[in-house]
Amino acid sequence: MPGGTFAMGSDDFYPEERPVRTVEVAGFWMDERPVTVSEYRRFVRATGYVTVAERRLDADLHPGADPRLTTPGSLVFHPTPGPVDLSDCGSWWSYVPGANWRRPEGPGSAPHGRERHPVTHVAYEDAEAYAHWSGKQLPTESEWEYAARGGLDGAVYAWGDDFSPRGRLMANVWQGDFPWRHAGLGPFERTSPSGLFPANGYGLLDMTGNVWEWTSDVYRAPEPDRAAKAACVPLLVPLDRQSPLPWQRTAADAEAGTADGNRVARVVKGGSYLCSATYCLRYRPAARQPSDSATATGHVGFRCVVHPR
């Protein structure tokens, strides 16, 4: 990606994307596609790395926590049987013990047949560990958005202003009424293999849709009280009225250095297969969300960059 300036953000959609501002980015290299299941498997085999979703929480640090929530696991999407209150994302997200990058939907599932799909159920620390092992870095938010635009400065989507040019679907996003009626992509009800849709102007695949992608930036909203209500990425998902996910901090959180000891939210970009025009229209380069850096989910992945020395 050659360096340059571009108009970052959007004034036309969600509050956290405002205002549009001119940003300069130095040149860098970026992975053509999100890191895949097979690529992440090679990393784990080479290093013995254990992801956040595979680690048991210390019950002593969470007295009174539901025992289910100290069991290793991750957040998994489940379609609802019918229309629900869209203000409560706990209606379609649930903490599934045993869910992780190896078992995307929990025990009984497997990544077989999904080797070319983006790896999911990776917390920020897991993505950062892979990047370090591969001699790369995670992109900043501005680098990610600059690359996603593919040279189409100011366009709504990574491919232009028309959602489906000549009737063609350009990204893996929710088709139908979220979160219960989904037309799907044939055999792909969740993630899809990279390369199923056209590359953007810089030759990058799946920059929007499929999975959200981690960036290295700590999330800061321009104005906290302007945060959008429709959120694709759960920061803290209640399983029931009394039992939220337990809070734990990772090494990546500690390095970010929040003075109040709270967990750190990082910026994720690009939207996912759960983004829908009826709920969360965030399969756009300008879209951004905060994601709890210590939480893994079934719709967040990552890709890496290399900066010139």
Automatic annotation (TrEMBL):
GO terms for MF: formylglycine-generating oxidase activity
InterPro entries noted in UniProt: CTDL_fold, Sulfatase_Mod_Factor_Kinase, SUMF_dom, SUMF_sf
Domain Sulfatase-modifying factor enzyme-like: 2-305
A Pfam family that the UniProt record links to this protein: FGE-sulfatase
Domain of life, source organism: Bacteria
Segments traversing the membrane: none
Protein's recorded name: Formylglycine-generating enzyme required for sulfatase activity
Protein species of origin: Actinopolymorpha rutila
